[in-house]
């Protein structure tokens, strides 16, 4: 092994586990891994889905085993897994697959931003959240990919821009001062080479509103990208699969209807302004205080004296 040093010049050689939801062959993961390996500062493990698992959220495989295949990625020990992003993170930190438990889990880099309510759908964020559930520090990373503007080199620039965050976290982990009460979600702006700096921001409420359209074939209706946008020429109709249309089954496919943009000082706004946005996240989803007050007033009137509140 090369004479590697850690982020603060000592002998500690931290281990980073990389996962994602776009799949082990996705350029975002491969360019991220290449940057991490090139620093010679970390031991890098990779445990990622064997195919795209975008928008799988925090689903897990429960009723049957997952299959695991070793994959050749220079400078790493890497495995492709048949399960979900949460499965991959869980297996990767379990001690069952790799010889040691990682010091940090990095999930990404996703092709498409993950901000606002989209965080709930994101398999990328779920990979980091699963590590957080198990008291492993974690970061999810996403790049605001725009067709016609973005290219794969932007993943390299994004990964390099995240190195100060990664190194800062690892230094805190080494000093045993890093909090385990949250994990981080990082969104990288489209014009990453000219980013305006780093902005700590809260999660907003931005959301793509979805609709359903009837189709006559599973091949019809266009392809939904991991960016939650439709692929080019997605409205063009493709050949009809007669076996589906005549089987008596109705087929429907999701389409993006319109977007609900949060204009408050939250993650999506600062991302669109060109910042690298860092959002601390937890796992609890408490309702806003006004809603809590509403139910405190409602339930005594409809339930009676047997109702009480611990809120």
Structure described in brief:
The chain has 311 residues and is of the alpha/beta class. Helix content is 27%, strand content 23%. 39% of the residues are buried.
Structural class: alpha/beta
Strand content: 15-25%
Q: What value does the average pLDDT take?
A: 88
Q: Describe the strand arrangement of the main beta sheet, using strand numbers.
A: 3-4-2-1-5-6-7-11-8
Please compute the radius of gyration using only Cα atoms: 21 Å
Cα end-to-end separation: 55 Å
Note the overall shape: globular
Compute the number of strand runs.
11
Number of helical segments? 8
How would you characterize the overall build of this protein?
By secondary structure, the protein is an alpha/beta fold. 27% of the residues lie in helices and 23% in strands. It contains eight helices and eleven strands. The strands form two sheets. Strands 3-4-2-1-5-6-7-11-8 form a nine-stranded mixed beta sheet. Strands 9-10 form a two-stranded antiparallel ribbon. It is globular and about 65 Å long.
Label this structure with key terms.
alpha/beta, nine-stranded mixed β-sheet, globular, disordered N terminus
Write the layout of secondary structure elements.
Layout: E1 15-19, H1 27-38, E2 43-49, E3 68-71, E4 76-81, H2 85-93, E5 104-111, H3 118-121, H4 123-133, E6 138-143, H5 153-174, E7 183-188, E8 198-200, E9 207-215, H6 242-245, E10 251-260, H7 267-272, E11 276-281, H8 289-303
Parallel strand pairs: 1-2, 1-5, 2-4, 5-6, 6-7, 8-11
Antiparallel strand pairs: 3-4, 7-11, 9-10
Helix pairs in contact: 1-5, 2-4
